[in-house]
Design brief:
mainly alpha, about 70 residues
């Protein structure tokens, strides 16, 4: 399975990360980037298509996101 970010040019990825770092205030807002997360990028069984998780993927991802938000 391919990485989600392979569809985008590096410029777009870098600009997105730069923008998010300018927007995020780590005291009240957070940005988590899972676009290259090895737990998901090589697992097509977790995706409905190249951009969206299916129910199986969501069931795996939701507790991870919850844990990251909690800490």
């Amino acid at each position: 399975y391919y990485r989600y970010t392979e569809e985008f040019e590096n410029f777009y990825i870098n600009e997105t990360k730069k923008l998010m770092s300018e927007i995020v205030d780590n005291d009240i807002s957070f940005y988590f980037d899972y676009s290259n997360d090895d737990r998901f990028i090589f697992e097509p069984k977790y995706f409905r298509d190249g951009h969206h998780m299916n129910i199986s993927g969501a069931k795996i991802f939701t507790p991870i996101l919850h844990e990251d938000i909690a800490h």
